[in-house]
Every structure is written in C-alpha cells, then in structure tokens.
Design a protein that fits this description.
This protein is mainly beta and 299 residues long. The chain is built from two helices and 22 strands. Strand 1, helix 2 and strand 2 form a beta-alpha-beta unit. The relative contact order is 0.07.
Length: 299
Amino acid sequence: MNKLTAGLGAALVLCVYAVPANAQATRTWVSGTGNDANACTRSAPCATFSTALSKTVAGGEIDCIDAGGFGTFTINKSITIDCGGAVGSILANGVTGITVNAGANDKIVLRNLNIQGLGAGTNGIRFTAGFHLTVDNVTITGFTSRGIDVDKGASANVYVRDTRIANVATGIRLFTGLGGINAQIDNVRIDNASASGLEVASGSTIASISNSVITNATGSGLLMSGGGFINASRTTIAKSGIGVNSNAPSGSIRVSAMNLQDNGTGFAVVSGATISSAGNNKVIGTVGPSPNGVAIPFR
C-alpha cells in the first residue's frame, strides 16, 4: 500500500509539472506601468491589450488596474474587456482602434474604454466577424470614417449603450451581406458627424435606437440607405442636415416620441420608402414634409 501511495504521489507531481508554462488565464490585467514580458496577472500586469488577449482563455476577461494607453488590437475570440474604475485609453492615429474579427459564435464585450483617433484614425471599432458585440460606456472620438463600423458577411447582434461618439464621419453604420443584424442602441450621444449619426446600410438589418441624442450631423441624423428598418423612440435629433432620412426603396423608419429641433429638413423619403409615425413627435424650427405611412402605435 505504501508503494502504491508513493507511486500515485509521484504521478501527481508529474501531472503538475506537465502543465505548460504559457497556459492561458481566465482573467488577465493591464496597467500603465505594466510590461508585456509579464504574465498579465494582477501583481504582474501587461502593458497592452494585445498581449493580454494572447494570454487570456476564450471567454475570459481583461481588466485595467489603472489608467494607461493600451494600444490598438484585433480580437479573435470571445472576450470581455473592462476598464471600470480606470481610464483604459486606446490611441489609434491613422488606424482602427479595435478590430473584432472573431469566430462565428463568439461574444465580445467592450466596457469602460476611451478610444481616440486624434483626427486621423479610420474607425473606432470595426466589427467584421463574430456573433455578439456589446459596447458599453465607451467614448469614441476623432475618426475619419466611423465610430462603430459593423461590416459583416453574416448575422450578428449589436448592443450599444451609455456611449458617446463625436467628431467622426458616421457615428454608427450597420451592414451585412448575408443574414441579418439586430442592433439595439440606447442612451447614446453622437455629435459632429460629417456624414450621418446612425446609418442602416443593408436590407436585412433592424436597428432600434432610444433615449439618445444626435446633433450636428451634416448629412442625416438617421439614415436608411439599405432597405432595412430603424425603430426610433424618445430620441433628439438637432442641428443636422436632415433629421430622419429614408433613402432606400423598401426601407422603413418608424418614429415615436421623437424631438426634432432646428434641422435643415425634418423628414425626407424617396419613392418606395416609408417613414411611419406614432403621431407623438415634436418638430421645432424645421422645414420638410411630415412623416408618411400608416401611424404605428408604440408602447
């Protein structure tokens, strides 16, 4: 019995030492004073998100210990990145801040981040592959193209909440070549967009925006360019070229409890498209026709 016990003990020791030194962790850490040669633990944090991602298991989480600039990177698996309690900054001068190019069933959460394009970055966040993308309490500013660019060839779910996007061409653009995108946008502020605030660019997309504010969009606050659906409620659109623009045949925008102020044109619609109203919208200081279509009750 003693020999058997000793043999089992030796086997256990061998199993312990067989664990690879580079095994990925379920949670890793970055710090403004971190080093990418570290293991990305709480006591030995890394310096960049890209290195922390390589040391984090799929479905794990990367957290920020303190403020820092943690670099641009590409996400290739399910991950949560959360800089709550610190300023997790990404400086993307001339490039995209975060590219999401993950697996077909992967879920990505980006929370409490500050993504700066410095007036020369291309996109704040670009989502090209993956299943769920959540953007929560993120600031995106200073990009020449889009704050959030969803450009996929398959279905996806997109959730954007408590987020500010400013000084971009388009605040949020949604497109898929195949399948459908379901987007839910709540409590989002989009300001100074040289093109549009929210654009739906594919017919298989349904975007719902609520409790949000879009100001100073040179083109349109809401733009339907691809024949899908925008459901807009309790949202202010102000000082934009066109407040609500249904610019694609078969495209539909439904508005309820909206507040349109001082836009060049309140509502614009092309032949074959619709803008439907619940009859409870406020339009002030704006020219242009009333929304067309059958009134839809919103609750």
